[in-house]
Design brief:
Length: 151
């Protein structure tokens, strides 16, 4: 029995993708769908929708709470840094692991993300094949190796 089955024997893993680029979101969704484990990936395009999703507001009433968040930093409106800070400051949400998945390679963004308690920081490669490989590695590590908290 795989680690994932031991962690989640009766339900799929819920993943929230917060990404404003439809092409990057579609590649991420495609790579996650190739996984051999059951999971559900939900996509929102901005920080405001991410917070509504996490709090079950508006169109996101009765959505499942995510086990993992994939978060872009450079979002329109409420950016990923603000989302990260708000989630990690919320007593009910702070234990949800957040993977920063962004184009930024700025050392200040890396440091600030970790200071705001991001669980890891991945810079999106420009090359499409390298990007797909990075998403596969995130999938393999976070959804098969790591024991996620049961929400």
């Amino acid at each position: 029995m795989s680690n994932n089955q031991n962690n989640y024997p009766y339900r799929p893993i819920e993943v929230l993708l917060v990404e404003d680029s439809p092409s990057d979101a579609n590649l991420t969704i495609r790579e996650f769908s190739k996984a051999k484990i059951a999971n559900k990936l939900y996509w929102v395009e901005n920080g405001e929708d991410a917070m509504d999703y996490l709090h079950g507001r508006g169109e996101f009433i009765d959505v499942a709470r995510p086990d993992l968040i994939l978060l872009d930093l450079n979002l329109p409106g409420m950016d990923g840094r603000e989302v990260l800070a708000e989630v990690k400051a919320d007593i009910d949400l702070k234990q949800i692991p957040i993977v920063i998945l962004t184009t930024s390679t700025d050392e200040e963004d890396v440091l600030r993300s970790y200071n705001l308690n991001a669980n890891c920081y991945v810079s999106k490669p420009i090359d499409i094949h390298e990007f797909m490989l990075a998403v596969q590695r995130i999938n393999e590590f976070w959804l098969t190796t790591v024991k996620l908290p049961h929400n």
